Amino acid sequence: MGTEKRMWVNYRKPAFFAGMFAVAVAAWGFNDDLFQITKNLDVFASVYKEVNINYVDDINSAKLVKTGVDAMLEGLDPYTEFVPESEIEDYKLHYVSTQYGGIGASIFIRDNKVYIADIFTGFPAQKADIRQGDQLVKINDIDLAGKTNDQVSQLLKGSKGAAIRLVIKRGSEVAVEKNLVRDEIRQPNVVYSGMVDGNMGYIKLNKFLENSADEVTSALAAIKKNNPNGIILDLRSNGGGILQEAVKIVNLFVAKDVTVVSQKGKVKEKNFTYNTMATPMEPNLPLVVLVNSRSASASEIVAGALQDLDRAIIIGQRSYGKGLVQQTFNLPYNSLVKITIAKYFVPSGRCVQALDYAHRKDDGSVIKVADSLMHEFKTKNGRSVYDGSGVYPDIFVKQDRFANITQTLVSKLLIFDYATLYRTTHPQIGDPRAFVLKDAEYADFTKYLAGKNYTYSTFSEKILDQLKTEATKEKQFPEIQAEYDVLKAKMAASKKNDLQLHKEEIKQVLENEIASRYFYEKGRYEANFKYDKELAQAVKTMQDKVQLASILKGEGTFKVIGKPVLAMAAKNDDDKDDSED
Question: What distance in Å separates the CA atoms of residue 69 and residue 81, rounded to the nearest whole number?
């Protein structure tokens, strides 16, 4: 016993001193961190004080501090941000809540005049027969000429039940006064739900803010009354939101006590694994999730988890690649800071984050994860999936881009204006799903464009202009001017045919805009169903039971998702912006 005791003492003594040394080092490290924090805060405060006192011109103190804080956070990631007291309400509306007091309309400014852009169904503006394209002249006797978008929005907003007086002008008609009562405006997370071809249920979810899971649950319950053959959850262009809402939505389709997502960061107390907690509402029906390059964050949690659990088939384009989790922290004087605290990992263990903010290049640009550095993970059924670049679809559908002329007609509001004019001469259009612009009506649209300014430059013209610039610099342009002029003339002649060459896609945009004049957001979706390639693919896939089973079992070409076709996807997904907003 004595020997054993001595051996134990001799063994423990070094460990004891090592432990004491570690504590001392840790304490020293903590004190050093504390000193650095105190020192840097002191330097920041001193600079601010001296500038505030001595700068030659008057300064905006609040703006100066925000500029300094923004610069400090800029080197981290786009999602870590400071929100001052003056921007708190807008922040909550954009990131947390979907409700406010107002009339239920959005606006835009053109030529220093205010126009109605969209009307929300069931709210005061629609009930008062205010329409898209109407000019908003006055609010409570305040002339709106020259006002900014934010200024007008603030005038429109107010407490529920408060009266508001508007002066509205429609086209060449005499301006009229309309008296409305503000209502609580709740912008839905689910902007459309219903049945589509093949007796498939369709749910369009635009964001993951408060009550989004409840809204999806209600939409799913209504759809189930139609005995659907499958469910389509559309997350295209959904930038995300609240992580917990994503978990609840996955739980609608996945059994209880299944891991959906885990978050891991530097602060261990903030590491957490989210599991499903309820019995699923629809665990068996075929399920498709639609994504595109603007589906991010919570959208990628839902799509990635359902893919990893082999519960759903993902259709569309590669998603955005935001695998970061933010948390807000309250600061003094009703301000806050939103900080990236963790990365999230879907059930297979992969993280979809595409950009590495921790290892920037020397010029400050962000590094994208290289294909060679991606890691392989396995879904529940053994399919291969990869991290580091968003969620890849099981079935890739190339996203077509509109031609330059179509984009120009939209951006110059000529499509918008024609739809407004169409509404004044056509009392109704019938079912928006069946609405098709007749050839004679399209010809009327082309006549309407006569004399309108919709000039645009094609990619080829831009290259030709660059050639002229470079040749002029090198004093070689006179030698090629004749050929240049011929090409320029041919391109100009070719553009004259663009209204006919791109007739089908221009008609598509026109039909969507016109349908919105009668049926608002609902009309846009229903008019576009017949053109929606991803939606058609979803219906076709769920109707093909053999292919459906092959994909989810990972048979044949469906065994690997993503990596073998990275180059093709990157090439085809040409509307993807590699930089994060």
Answer: 9
Cα separation values, 574 from 79, 406, 538, Å = 24, 17, 22
Residue pair 390/354 in contact by the 8 Å Cβ criterion: yes
**Positions in the chain whose pLDDT score sits under 50:** 1-23, 25-28, 566-581
Please give the pLDDT value at position 309: 98
Residues 6+ apart with CB under 8 A from 112: 145, 146
Rg (CA), the chain: 29
Both structure tokens of 577 = 């912006």
Closest CA to 73 of 310, 326, 375: 326
Of 428, 448, 578, the residue nearest 506 (C-alpha)? 448
By annotation, the residues acting in catalysis are: 297, 308, 322
- Render pLDDT for 258-292 as a digit per residue (tens, 0 to 9): 999 999 999 999 999 999 999 999 999 999 999 99
Q: Which of 391, 444, 419, 445 is nearest to 527 (CA)?
A: 419
d(CA 232, CA 16): 62
Tell me the pTM: 0.85
Tokens 């885990």, residue located: 262
Provide the 8-state DSSP code for 208: B
pLDDT number for residue 31: 62
E-strand stretches of 148-216: 163-169, 176-181, 183-186, 190-196, 200-205
Which of 245, 249, 260 lies closest to 210, judged by CA? Answer: 245
CB atoms within 10 A of CB 115: 19
How many residues can be counted in the chain?
581
CB 533 within 8 A of CB 393: no
Contact 144, 138 (CB under 8 A): yes
The vertex-537 CA angle with 261 and 506, nearest 5°, equals 110
Cβ–Cβ < 8 Å for 232, 203:
yes
